[in-house]
């Protein structure tokens, strides 16, 4: 789940003329009527689970110990497996509400808590962003249609740590423009991860992503960022995916997400009345992939791979 920009307080299509579908539109009454799921009492919860209010971000970037990294790895593996389960359910006619329900059930079966649930009041276990929805889509009862694509964003809290990841999934047969958008977004994430390591500037992440996608006519969201992750769902550092001059270099033990959002049109988002869903202003499609990683003495370890 992304953070920052005009939407930083949040934590975290249908399409262009390339397909016959229309952009996905707000459905406020439906989204607000869908109740959140039960979490068994014995499952440990993050601090915000009861109130919806997360603690203030620590200013200093945490340096995790070997024991802490293994606990983060455990949470990340559950998040990875939950994401894979969600992706296996994606097909025409399935609702995002059903995907959310199944993923929620899996997470609690692992003795873990779905981190999105009641984070700043978010009503569901996962985010489901279809076509032109940039981020933070709320699962609902609208069936997915052939030709759509969807981002599933899954974060899990286990043993005091949050593991966060997301990926794109095709609904039936997606047109070439859509497939190309997903492919270039995944490639941008992979290259950004390869660029990371001890002593590397955080700004190099945005340089790597932008230098790949912009010459091809795509744009990168500047309103939503990656973020530090660990004991808190969101913490420093903020990870900008566009050209930037933010200070700071990576050190062993730092954990964060990289989660570029790449758009076909102008990468400007508008908020729906539900207070969460962010869609492209021009109706163009967007894609996003995300991993949680930790810096090591020789490079990085991708914990959600």
From TrEMBL:
<dbReference type="GO" id="GO:0046872">
    <property type="term" value="F:metal ion binding"/>
</dbReference>
<dbReference type="GO" id="GO:0004239">
    <property type="term" value="F:initiator methionyl aminopeptidase activity"/>
</dbReference>
<dbReference type="InterPro" id="IPR036005">
    <property type="entry name" value="Creatinase/aminopeptidase-like"/>
</dbReference>
<feature type="binding site">
    <location>
        <position position="164"/>
    </location>
    <ligand>
        <name>a divalent metal cation 2</name>
    </ligand>
</feature>
<dbReference type="InterPro" id="IPR001714">
    <property type="entry name" value="Pept_M24_MAP"/>
</dbReference>
<feature type="binding site">
    <location>
        <position position="259"/>
    </location>
    <ligand>
        <name>a divalent metal cation 2</name>
    </ligand>
</feature>
<feature type="binding site">
    <location>
        <position position="153"/>
    </location>
    <ligand>
        <name>a divalent metal cation 1</name>
    </ligand>
</feature>
<dbReference type="GO" id="GO:0070006">
    <property type="term" value="F:metalloaminopeptidase activity"/>
</dbReference>
<feature type="binding site">
    <location>
        <position position="164"/>
    </location>
    <ligand>
        <name>a divalent metal cation 1</name>
    </ligand>
</feature>
<feature type="binding site">
    <location>
        <position position="227"/>
    </location>
    <ligand>
        <name>a divalent metal cation 2</name>
    </ligand>
</feature>
<keyword id="KW-0645">Protease</keyword>
<keyword id="KW-0479">Metal-binding</keyword>
<dbReference type="InterPro" id="IPR002467">
    <property type="entry name" value="Pept_M24A_MAP1"/>
</dbReference>
<protein>
    <recommendedName>
        <fullName>Methionine aminopeptidase</fullName>
        <ecNumber>3.4.11.18</ecNumber>
    </recommendedName>
</protein>
<dbReference type="Pfam" id="PF00557">
    <property type="entry name" value="Peptidase_M24"/>
</dbReference>
<feature type="region of interest" description="Disordered">
    <location>
        <begin position="14"/>
        <end position="50"/>
    </location>
</feature>
<dbReference type="GO" id="GO:0006508">
    <property type="term" value="P:proteolysis"/>
</dbReference>
<keyword id="KW-0378">Hydrolase</keyword>
<dbReference type="InterPro" id="IPR000994">
    <property type="entry name" value="Pept_M24"/>
</dbReference>
<feature type="binding site">
    <location>
        <position position="136"/>
    </location>
    <ligand>
        <name>substrate</name>
    </ligand>
</feature>
<feature type="binding site">
    <location>
        <position position="290"/>
    </location>
    <ligand>
        <name>a divalent metal cation 2</name>
    </ligand>
</feature>
<comment type="similarity">
    <text>Belongs to the peptidase M24A family. Methionine aminopeptidase type 1 subfamily.</text>
</comment>
<feature type="binding site">
    <location>
        <position position="290"/>
    </location>
    <ligand>
        <name>a divalent metal cation 1</name>
    </ligand>
</feature>
<comment type="function">
    <text>Cotranslationally removes the N-terminal methionine from nascent proteins. The N-terminal methionine is often cleaved when the second residue in the primary sequence is small and uncharged (Met-Ala-, Cys, Gly, Pro, Ser, Thr, or Val).</text>
</comment>
<feature type="binding site">
    <location>
        <position position="234"/>
    </location>
    <ligand>
        <name>substrate</name>
    </ligand>
</feature>
<feature type="domain" description="Peptidase M24">
    <location>
        <begin position="70"/>
        <end position="296"/>
    </location>
</feature>
<keyword id="KW-0031">Aminopeptidase</keyword>
């Amino acid at each position: 789940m992304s953070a920052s920009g005009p939407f930083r307080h949040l934590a975290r299509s249908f399409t262009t003329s390339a397909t016959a579908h229309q952009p996905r539109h707000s459905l406020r009454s439906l989204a607000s009527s869908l109740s959140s799921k039960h979490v068994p009492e014995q499952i440990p919860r993050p601090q915000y689970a009861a109130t919806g209010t997360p603690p203030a971000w620590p200013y200093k970037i945490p340096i995790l110990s070997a024991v802490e990294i293994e606990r983060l790895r455990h949470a990340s593996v559950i998040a990875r497996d939950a994401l894979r389960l969600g992706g296996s359910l994606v097909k025409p006619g399935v609702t995002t509400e059903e995907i959310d329900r199944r993923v929620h059930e899996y997470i609690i079966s692992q003795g873990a808590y779905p981190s999105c649930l009641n984070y700043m009041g978010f009503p569901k276990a996962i985010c489901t962003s279809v076509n032109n929805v940039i981020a933070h889509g709320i699962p609902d009862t609208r069936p997915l249609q052939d030709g759509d694509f969807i981002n599933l964003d899954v974060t899990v809290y286990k043993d005091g740590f949050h593991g966060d990841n997301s990926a794109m999934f095709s609904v039936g047969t997606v047109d070439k423009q859509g497939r190309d958008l997903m492919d270039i977004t995944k490639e941008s994430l992979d290259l950004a991860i390869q660029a990371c390591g001890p002593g590397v500037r955080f700004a190099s992440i945005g340089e790597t992503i932008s230098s790949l996608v912009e010459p091809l006519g795509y744009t990168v969201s500047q309103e939503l960022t990656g973020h530090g992750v660990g004991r808190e769902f969101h913490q420093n550092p903020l990870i900008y995916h566009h050209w930037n001059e933010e200070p700071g270099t990576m050190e062993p033990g730092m954990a964060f997400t990289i989660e570029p959002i790449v758009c076909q049109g102008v990468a400007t988002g508008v908020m729906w009345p539900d207070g969460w869903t962010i869609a492209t202003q021009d109706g163009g499609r967007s894609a996003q992939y995300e991993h949680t990683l930790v810096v090591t003495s020789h490079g990085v370890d991708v914990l959600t791979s």
